[in-house]
Amino acid sequence: MRVFVAVLLALAVAAVLAAAIQYDSGYVLIAFGQTTVEMTVWVAVAVQALFVLLVLALFLALRRGSKFSNRLMTLRSTRRAQRDRNKTNRGLIAFIEGKWADARKLLVDAARDSDQPLINYLLAARASHALGDEEGVRRYLGKAEGAAQRADVAVALNQADLQLESGQLESALATLNRVRSRADRYPAVLVLLQKVYLGLQDWTALRGILPELRKHALLDDTRLEELEREALGGELRRLVQQRDPAGVAHWWKRLASPWQVDRQLLLFTAQAYVELQDQPAAEKILAQGLDKHWHAEWVALYGRVAGADVRKQLARAENWHRERGRDATLLVALGRISLRNELWGKARDYFDAARQIESSAEVCFELARLAENMGDEAAARRFVVEALEKQSTALPALPQPSRTAGREGKTP
To answer: Which residues, in sequence order, are bridge partners of residue 36?
Structure first.
């Protein structure tokens, strides 16, 4: 139906134009200098229409040519990008397989024509590190930094990680300090700093970043506790090496309450005081700890140190005994504290009570020493034999000659 209407309209327009041409063709005169051109109006209209059609045809041809050129460029770009992706993928596979030279070549080749070459250059730097090519590491890290805006942190993290693997701890620390101020935005900086501080045994600095590591949940609570305990132990060892008992006291006073009753740390601190010839300080912190928590290691050491007032020390230990009852470790400690108070009979009673509960080489040797010094040599010998039998290196049960038998024994 639409075609029929269009044909009718075309015929009507043609009839009108034919009638107009027959009625009056008119004319158009164009003069330019000495040249004139004369034609009918309808010829002029036809020429003008033809000109417009030619211009329109040229425009359409140019537009189509431009689209074709764009399509061709897009096709070439797509093929090049696909080729680069293939090289990158092959490079990644080679990197994972440990083929460092092949990986570096493929990754660098792909990076030259890539619009996102950052990852390629970072991995090329790591491949160079694996090849022992430090110049290559610096070159590709430099290219990576210039490959993308705000890539300095990513480059610094990779550089520090490679320096850390090479044992260049001071260099790694300097690299990380350049981006340390942005740790809130890049928490991975803190993880590497933690490793560097551990390697450098910079315990104070390590403790300083633990709150940030906890804030960003970069390590689990168990690992954070281990790190803090290790850092505290490192600080304590340094003070002991410096022979600084006052420093140990100041350090202990500043510790958070939970750490002052930590099983390992309190024991290490008390042992540090003993090494620094300050047994009263060791006795004090052990007593404070045992009033809150009960650990056999603390009790054993408490019996080995001398407090500022050994009578009060004995009274405190006896009070624990009334609360705890039959505790072999505490009874041994009570025996030793009784010896410090020169209460020989009480000491022997405590040692013997401990032996009845748990006969160990340690308590038997204590009884042997005490019996010998009290003039009971027979008991001393008996306890020595028992102590030797309790030791882990006890001899196997084998036939032995009687004391009255001859030296030669049986003849083979």
So the answer is: 31
Distance of CA 148 to the CA centre of its chain: 26
Q: Tell me the DSSP string of 240-285.
A: HHTT-HHHHHHHHHHS-HHHHT-HHHHHHHHHHHHHTT-HHHHHHH
For residue 305, give the DSSP letter.
S
Which distant-in-sequence residues (6+ apart) come within 8 Å of 370 by Cβ? 339, 344, 347, 348, 351
What is the architecture, at CATH level 2, of domain 309-391?
Answer: Alpha Horseshoe (1.25)
d(CA 257, CA 119): 47
Architecture field, domain 84-147: Alpha Horseshoe (1.25)
The domain limits of the chain are 84-147, 150-219, 254-302, 309-391
Q: What is the pLDDT of residues 306-353, one digit of tens each?
A: 999 999 999 999 999 999 988 999 999 999 999 999 999 999 999 999
Q: Which of 141, 90, 81 is nearest to 116 (CA)?
A: 81
Q: Which residues lie across from 28 on neighbouring strands?
A: 39
Residue 161: which residues within 8 A CB-CB, separation 6 or more?
172, 192
- Does the predicted TM-score (pTM) go above 0.90? no
